[in-house]
Amino acid sequence: MSGIIYERGVDSKSFALIRSEGDKALFGGRTTQFMKNKLGIPSGRPLADFLPTLLIKAKDFATELTSYNVVDKDLSGDKQITKEHIDNNGEVRNILLKRGVKPENLPPAEDVKKVQRRIDSTEKMILKEIKKDKK
Hints:
0% strand, single chain
């Protein structure tokens, strides 16, 4: 989405606000910071690093809808694009609610950095075993 909206008169500060407003719509009026605090996410770490896959996909879907509609509807500027992103996140939230999922009530997922460290460690062990077996 960033590449598309930067071409349409949105700067980095506005981009962060657009994303933040989208999160607020997805989480029923709760800010990104509120959700980070609620989920116990360390400061300086992104919310997405701790979201369950369902919410990552929900945010991604809303972002893709925004990207598509910015081009399709020829939107430009902070206000139009922010409104579009809020609307899309709100509609994704409505779908989740209709299916019995309240985004702000889902528990955090395992920290992606922990998962990555575990994968890296396992990969190293496997490579060691392969080298050992070749000898």
